[in-house]
Write a structure and sequence with these properties.
Bound molecules: NADPH dihydro-nicotinamide-adenine-dinucleotide phosphate
Structural class: alpha/beta
Distance between the termini: 38 Å
CATH superfamily: NAD(P)-binding Rossmann-like Domain
Strand content: 5-15%
Shape: globular
Strand order of the largest sheet: 3-2-1-4-5-6-7
Length: about 250
């Protein structure tokens, strides 16, 4: 009853695996014996990662997709069924083009809502019924510290992450009867490419020159991967429902 779960032979689908947290999670879970399906839009990056891991004996399937493309996500869902379904979803793909609401960068609002909310839902939809049928599974959604509080210029981004947290907790309750576990991971600042997605020049520079500056002692992607592994490794009766991980220097 009290045994930790091992990842050996578990099939894990990771979205946003071409960089940052998703890539680090792919590496860590592969080293723990997982079989991977990796998704993102940048195919070359996925192919390079897959080749490296396959060279270490890991089974990796590359499934390039834009998570905001509903039909394409449904097609990946069918591909996953053909593989025999997935045991674990790491719902990680996201984008952060923040700006003050007064600037009215409506295309960027749409993009965040499409990728960070709809993309997360499409991925859940692709795996959840299979998990429910098998009465086993674990869905890990990557929201953010911005799912718990608000930041100026991050109204829409924070809104999407609050939504992911709310969806996660609702899904956790609904999924109990299917023996599917749900975890919402809330990273603070992590050194990744995420600030590059900021289209507002002044804000991008401010973010990259301050909290995300090269010498800033913020988290590394591996720190979040470790948190994900912790949640996945708990005994079957344990649901790590939420995990907030911030760098020591991050007050809010
Ligand atoms: P990265 O920019 O390094 O990674 C984002 C990943 O998402 C990439 O693999 C990217 O791949 C993928 N992605 C973006 N848009 C799409 C899309 N439309 N379809 C498919 N894949 C897409 O940043 P992080 O690793 O930091 O981000 C991972 C998650 O962590 C995000 O959800 C982010 O909001 C969250 N987070 C990050 C924090 C941080 O400080 N870094 C803090 C809190 C939360 P590609 O471009 O190839 O499609």
């Amino acid at each position: 009853m009290n045994t930790e779960q091992t990842l050996t032979g578990k099939r894990v689908w990771i979205t946003g695996a071409s960089s940052g947290i998703g890539e680090a999670t792919a590496r860590l879970l592969a080293s723990e014996g997982a079989e991977l399906v990796i998704s993102a839009r940048r195919v070359e990056k996925l192919d390079t990662l897959a080749a490296e891991l396959q060279g270490q004996g890991v089974t990796v399937t590359v499934a390039p997709v834009d998570v905001s493309d509903r039909a394409a996500m449904a097609a990946v869902g069918e591909q996953l069924v053909a593989l025999g379904g997935v045991d674990i979803l790491i719902n990680n793909a996201g984008t952060m083009p923040i700006s003050p609401i007064i600037n009215g960068r409506v295309d960027e609002w749409d993009r965040m809502i499409d990728v960070n909310i709809k993309g997360v839902l499409y991925a859940i939809h692709a795996v959840y019924s299979g998990m429910a049928e098998r009465k086993a599974g674990h869905i890990v959604n990557i929201s953010s510290i911005a799912a718990r509080q608000t930041y100026q210029s991050a109204g829409v981004y924070g809104g999407t992450k609050h939504a992911v947290r709310a969806i996660s907790d609702t899904l956790r309750k609904e999924a109990i009867r299917f023996n599917v576990r749900v975890t919402d991971i809330q990273p603070g600042s992590v050194a990744t490419e995420l600030p590059d997605s900021i289209g507002h020049d002044k804000i991008r520079s401010a973010v990259k020159d301050n909290m995300y500056a090269e010498d800033s002692p913020i988290l590394q992607p591996r720190d979040i991967a470790n948190g994900i592994l912790y949640a996945l490794s708990q005994p079957p009766y344990v649901d790590v429902s939420e995990l907030l991980i911030r760098p020591v220097i991050q007050e809010n």
